[in-house]
Design a protein that fits this description.
The chain is elongated. It has four helices and 13 strands. A hairpin with a 2-residue loop joins β11 (about 120-125) and β12. It is an alpha+beta fold.
Length: about 180
């Protein structure tokens, strides 16, 4: 039995939930999200709660039960509060600009890298910090990963794009490695 899946999801005031066939729609002050419900999962709305349960107990349904409950919970949180991920840029001459809905990165390549914003995602800048925000947690995380993949942090000097608070394990350089081995 899923410990996460058993917990009911509370629906806050101002959030509207519609369950139709194999689809769930959640609408709030920040926007609306809809997702498909897997075939073996049953989603019910009772007053101000959403209850998720498996239709039959098998390995696949047990795996999807807790996952679907968390996805629906994230949908409710997204339409009320929203989600954001912060990425830090570190390196001499590294810059980022916002042109319309696109993020333009200057990260040491011979050309600028343009990262278009998917529908529902908004970029903003604070000095050397890129903020990716939206109501869909999955899409916010995926977009942040795409931006990080443009120039991941390297282990010698730490230059690149990293998540805020991410710790990069640094390696010793050539000089330190040879000086330590000669003694």
């Amino acid at each position: 039995m899923s410990r996460v899946g058993k917990k009911p999801i509370q629906i806050p005031a101002g959030v509207e939930v519609k369950i139709e066939d194999e689809k769930i729609n959640v609408k709030g002050i920040k926007g609306s999200i809809s997702k498909e419900i897997p075939a073996g999962i049953l989603v019910e709305q009772k007053e101000k709660e959403i209850i998720v349960s498996p239709k039959s107990i098998n390995k696949r349904n047990k795996a999807l039960w807790g996952l679907m409950r968390m996805i629906i919970s994230n949908m409710v949180d997204g339409v009320t509060k929203g989600f954001d991920k912060k990425l830090e840029m570190e390196g001499v001459g590294f810059k980022a600009n916002i042109q319309g809905n696109d993020l333009v990165l200057e990260v040491g390549f011979s050309h600028n890298v343009k990262v278009p914003a998917p529908e529902g995602i908004k970029y903003s800048m604070e000095k050397n910090v890129i903020v990716v925000s939206g109501i869909d947690k999955e899409l916010v995380g995926q977009t942040a990963a795409v931006i990080r993949r443009v120039k991941p942090p390297e282990p010698y000097k730490g230059k690149g794009i990293r998540y805020q608070g991410e710790i990069i394990r640094r390696k010793l350089g050539k000089k330190a490695a040879t000086a330590g081995g000669a003694g």
